[in-house]
Amino acid sequence: MLRAYSHAGGRLTAQPVGASDTLPAGTVWVDMLTPTPAEDTALETALGVEIPTRDDLAEIEASSRLYTDNGSIYMTLSVATGILQSKDLLAAELHPLALILAPGAMVTLRYAELTVIDRLAAHCARTAPATPPALLIQLLDTIVDRLADSIERIAAEIDAINRQAFRRVVPRGRQQRLSNLALQSLIQRLGTAQDALSKARESAVSLSRAASFLVLSLPKEASQTAALKSMTRDLASLTDHASYLGNSITFLLDTTLGLINIEQNAVLKIFSVFAIVFMPPTLVAGIYGMNFAHMPELDWQLGYPMALVLMLASAVLPYLIARWRGWL
Q: What percent of the chain has pLDDT over 90?
């Protein structure tokens, strides 16, 4: 599907374009969403550019993602999506977005719905940049703002996990313990946050490279250069913050695994203490359960109550010692 945006009264108006249609006069932006081969050919003829294929967008080397050809600038970005829409970050995905800055228009090529494109279209419906380079910078700025919100969302999730793991409510002076299932849930949430963070960081690195490439490729205009340098600083800070969050996730993961080990050791310790508590009564019962003919207590009238009291005392004493030593 092709959608052409042209200037009208200081705003951009959108118009669907078919493979056999000509671009409207004054077109400054063409958005391509999962285009057909016929639409690719029609746009290549109209603008004199080469439209990358879907396989081209999957290339990871810098020379295939950032280059110039016949006076046009080609860039392929990795855009993180789904982070702000999902409650538990499970919908985080990474989609390629190709940007082509031709002499007369900007082309966006994508194979998925991207919120940043809709936000740019809504912004341009109110007030539009005058030139395609300014429109391109506006799009990059929109992606950076959206990316910053995504990283803030991930940071909030990490802080929520931290509160659940360490800053729990302490009722009546006793710290609330987490079950193994709750700790396993924390690990799953940490894994989901790490996945979303890695996608956001990859998007930030991709944008940073594109901004640096544009500084060298675009004509030197003071406003555009200043905007790109400011964007580069913002992306550097986002990348640093993403690295910090990654270290926090690693720490939380190690700590959660340690808490699981502590809980498991506590269970084993309880079983060990109970085994020690019941060992003396078992010994007493074993002694008086022997079938020897000459045992002093066999004919004693208080022998049975004495054996019960002795077993009870031998069980209570190890329990009190364990409590006194803090083992329970």
A: 20
How many residues in the chain? 328
Q: What is the pLDDT of residue 283?
A: 81
Cβ neighbours of 256 (radius 10 Å): 23
Structure tokens at 61: 């080397």
Integer CA distances (angstroms), 188 to 156, 229, 244, 257, 268, in order? 16, 38, 20, 12, 25
pTM listed for this prediction: 0.78
Helix 222-288 and helix 132-165: axis angle, to 10°?
20
CA dist., res. 213 & res. 294, Å (int): 100
Burial, 56: exposed, middle or buried (Cβ in 10 Å; 0-12, 13-18, 19+)?
middle
Instruction: Break the chain into its structural domains and give their ranges.
Output: 2-263, 265-325
User: Domain 2-263 falls in which CATH fold?
Assistant: Beta Polymerase; domain 2 (3.30.460)
Single-letter residue type at 254: D
Do the Cβ atoms of 304 and 262 come closer than 8 Å? no
Q: What are phi and psi of 170, to 5 degrees?
A: -115, 90
In the beta sheet, which residues pair with residue 77? 97
* Token representation of residue 156: 């909030």
Give residue 158's identity as a one-letter amino acid code. Answer: I
Statement: 265-325 belongs to CATH 3.40.1350.10 = no
